[in-house]
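Help needed: design a sequence for this.
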């Protein structure tokens, strides 16, 4: 009898451990939407984006969103991820989608691998999901083991569990706690009265707002309670978020987390002595099985880390921490840069400026990159290099160019960006033939994208940044002609409560700089607004500001036509078949941006509202500002020829960086 009992207990324990081990590797994937044909353009574009997704996720601090034609792909790794673990997880998710959703347009896969202490999301769609909350469809993966209710009070457990849900939601969606670009993440450990400690993790994609994140997670929690309440843990995932909880520290996410005590216990429920005995018994059982597993896991993790360090030392790309608040960055080996650019061959050269040259490169992974090689031995190059690395590691927006990494070996200072195939806006808008490709719909979309990029810099990013050199040549166009603001070498970072400043040097490009900045060296977000207004007017006219020198510049020319009732005369003839009313509204907005009185210029948030609505009342513009002469104290030696022939001086500035 005793032997039979022992065999039964042993078999039950093995079954329990088997069920638990199956629960330790989670994959919640789903395939929806229409189908596509094998070898179709959608299929090829999806696989092309997949081929570099894991690398791009690592290069962009754990979150990457990209598109090619109508294919949109997203990758995300849990915060505090291990680099190789994240790569393996994303690649595994891609394989799962290719195998299980081989010809479906929409799919997503939240994958958790506790052995490698990582979880990740891979998602594909035929529409943009960036900054868009999507709740369906959802998946659920409950723990196969139910909570033993024979000796425990489930009413008390539910009270404590729901209190913990509220605390985890608060941690996850509290913007003041989001210290990195991977916001919308929370991991909480709570001590329960009559149960083992409970562990809970919530995460949303970092592009949605905290309010949207809360909605998504609350839907997950409700779904779990309705479908699988009473299970000993589980995971619910939706396209925009994931919720998981369990009675053990799954994939080591809880080393440095918010710890919560149990909520006050109702006195009449269970005697204290019983609660203590249950807790001790449970703790003893857990210790017997968990301690050896934890020891083996720690040894295994140590071996993995040692192996990872060995691989990094022999690789051309290494993950490093810059002094940008601990944000991970990729440091490229100079030899790898030489291979990618074919020794900086002239055939690969795609740009030239006062800072140096830009080359197209191809990494061994076949990813295309843009390599910015700063002029050797230039003190000003040191400043621009430091500015762009420190700023762009903290910024992420679809309308800002992405910095993938850097290289600083010897006297070489190199910045590695995403490759933007359509070059810069000035190559289109100021070219008689290429300008034909820029329909009004495309021009208005570019204008709106630039405005959103500036709004992010001024108000929505973790930092408050004044670009100070916005112009057509610093607006890049991707394969879908989406604009990306670039060149942050002259950008200035502000504290949260700072609204304007004074600089010792005037930097930027003449014709795009606001008069108060040139004359008095005063700059603010309104100096960027002025530059945006000039670019907007250039987009409407199809002409560079420098072509209007005789009439004191494009802003002055447009203002003169406006007050004479002939504003329509400045519209590009190529737009003759477009909506004149909408174009006139854009001229109106452009003139408001270039007003001489700084206080009357709108903020970028107002500009975006006006651009997107034809029903909002817009104030009448006042006199436009213009300056075509260099300030008297500027020496000719401080001048440098900028892109597109525009006169730039002091191409670089000394910028003191401080956190917002």
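Sure. Designed sequence:
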């Amino acid at each position: 009898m005793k032997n039979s009992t022992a065999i039964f207990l042993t078999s039950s324990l093995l079954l329990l451990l088997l069920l638990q081990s199956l629960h330790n590797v989670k994959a919640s994937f789903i395939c929806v939407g229409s189908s596509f044909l094998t070898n179709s353009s959608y299929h090829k574009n999806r696989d092309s984006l997949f081929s570099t997704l894991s690398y791009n996720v690592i290069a962009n601090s754990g979150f990457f969103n990209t598109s090619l034609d109508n294919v949109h792909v997203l990758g995300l790794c849990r915060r505090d991820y291990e680099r190789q673990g994240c790569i393996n997880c994303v690649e595994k998710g891609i394989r799962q989608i290719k195998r299980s959703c081989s010809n479906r347009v929409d799919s997503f896969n939240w994958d958790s691998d506790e052995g490698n202490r990582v979880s990740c999301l891979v998602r594909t769609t035929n529409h943009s999901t960036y900054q868009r909350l999507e709740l369906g469809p959802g998946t659920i993966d409950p723990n196969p083991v139910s909570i033993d209710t024979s000796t425990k009070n489930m009413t008390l457990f539910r009270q404590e569990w729901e209190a913990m849900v509220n605390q985890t939601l608060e941690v996850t969606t509290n913007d003041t706690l989001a210290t990195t670009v991977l916001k919308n993440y929370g991991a909480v450990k709570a001590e329960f009265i009559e149960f083992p400690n409970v562990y809970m993790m919530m995460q949303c994609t970092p592009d949605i707002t905290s309010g949207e994140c809360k909605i998504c997670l609350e839907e997950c929690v409700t779904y779990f309670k309705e479908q699988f309440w009473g299970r000993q843990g589980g995971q619910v995932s939706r396209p925009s978020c994931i919720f998981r909880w369990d009675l053990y520290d799954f994939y080591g996410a809880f080393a440095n987390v918010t710890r919560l005590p149990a909520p006050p216990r109702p006195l009449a429920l269970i005697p204290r002595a019983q609660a203590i005995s249950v807790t001790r018994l449970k703790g003893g059982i857990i210790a017997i099985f968990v301690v050896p597993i934890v020891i083996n896991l720690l040894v295994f993790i140590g071996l993995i880390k040692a192996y990872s360090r060995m691989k990094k030392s022999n690789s051309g790309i290494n993950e490093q921490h810059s002094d940008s608040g601990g944000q991970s960055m990729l440091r490229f080996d100079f030899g790898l840069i030489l291979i990618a650019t074919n020794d900086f061959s002239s055939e690969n050269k795609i740009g030239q400026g006062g800072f140096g040259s830009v080359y197209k490169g191809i990494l061994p992974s076949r990813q295309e990159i843009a390599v910015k090689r700063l002029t050797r031995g230039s003190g000003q190059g040191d400043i621009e290099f430091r500015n762009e690395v420190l700023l762009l590691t903290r910024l992420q927006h679809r309308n800002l160019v992405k910095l993938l990494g850097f290289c600083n070996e010897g006297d070489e200072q190199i910045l590695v960006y995403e490759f933007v195939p359509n070059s810069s806006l000035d190559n289109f808008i100021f070219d008689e033939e290429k300008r034909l490709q820029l329909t009004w719909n495309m021009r208005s979309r570019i204008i709106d994208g630039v405005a959103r990029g500036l709004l992010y810099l001024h108000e929505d990013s973790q930092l408050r940044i004044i670009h100070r050199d916005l112009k057509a040549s610093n607006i890049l166009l991707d394969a879908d002609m989406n604009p990306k603001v670039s060149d942050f070498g002259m950008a200035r970072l502000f504290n949260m409560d700072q609204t304007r400043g004074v600089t010792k040097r005037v930097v930027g490009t003449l014709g795009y700089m606001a008069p108060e900045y040139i004359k008095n060296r005063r700059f603010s977000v309104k100096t960027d607004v002025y530059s945006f207004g000039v670019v907007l007017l250039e987009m409407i006219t199809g002409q560079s500001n420098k072509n209007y020198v005789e009439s004191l510049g494009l802003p002055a020319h447009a203002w003169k036509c406006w007050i004479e009732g002939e504003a329509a005369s400045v519209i590009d003839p190529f737009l003759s078949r477009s909506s004149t009313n909408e174009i006139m509204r854009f001229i109106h907005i452009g003139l408001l941006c270039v007003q001489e009185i700084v206080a009357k210029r709108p903020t970028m948030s107002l500009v975006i509202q006006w651009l997107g609505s034809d029903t909002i009342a817009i104030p009448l513009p006042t006199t436009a500002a213009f300056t075509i002469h260099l300030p008297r104290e500027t020496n000719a030696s401080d001048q440098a020829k900028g892109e597109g022939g525009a006169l730039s001086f002091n191409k670089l500035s000394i910028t003191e960086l401080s956190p917002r």
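The chain has a mean pLDDT of 76.
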